[in-house]
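During the second half of the funding period, the structural biology subgroup turned its attention to how the target accommodates small molecules. The most pressing case was zinc ion, which had performed well in the primary screen but for which no bound structure existed. We therefore specified the complex as follows and requested a full 3D prediction, including the ligand pose.
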Amino acid sequence: MYSDVVVRGMTSEYSSMDHRLLQQASFWEFLFSVDEDLAATARRAGCGCGGRLDRADFPRKPRGGPGDLPEEYGYRRSFCCHREGCRKRVTPPSVRFLGRRVYLHTVIILVAAMQQGATPRRVRELSELFGADRRTIARWQVFWQEQFPRTAFWKVARGFLLPLVDAAALPLELLRRFLHCRDPDPLEGWKRLLWFLSPITITGGLKS
Ligand SMILES: [Zn+2]
């Protein structure tokens, strides 16, 4: 999908959030393994009623990833209490999926960040790279700058990022804080960022 299209005009800062990482199956396998850990933790905790949690995954058809996205991306882990009369559903937080949105969370962050201050030509290139039309990319921008800053999550979480992050700089500033000038391994930076944001990926996680 985004084979050899080159995003022109990349500054050294942008190259630290290299979109080519997203072409590698190993990146997506890594994120899957993080999600498996999050799911195992949720399953061990069990249902609030004390019941055992059985698997009840949601089928997914994520967009924005490479053609060889691992087949584990065809579902999102979810559980259901086995107790008759309870049957409560428990969906663990995820570093891959942002709620019910079809595009992968990493893509929604990275493309919105790369789009900040971008020329129309750049936006066309991003649209080609990730298979998202311009309206979709514009909606992600609205999400990060208007919806996300109003969430209860962000009102608390922003206090952990000092100096305070200005909403107008989202999500680019998040990438700067988590990926830039830190660990030379971008996988770890992405893991930290997606883990940090994972509370917004569950039902009700975007409540203001
Ligand atoms: Zn239960």
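Two results from this model are relevant to the next phase. The pocket of zinc ion is lined by residues 47, 49, 51, 81, 83, 86, 88 (CB under 6 Å). Residues 10 and 202 are 34 Å apart (CA to CA).
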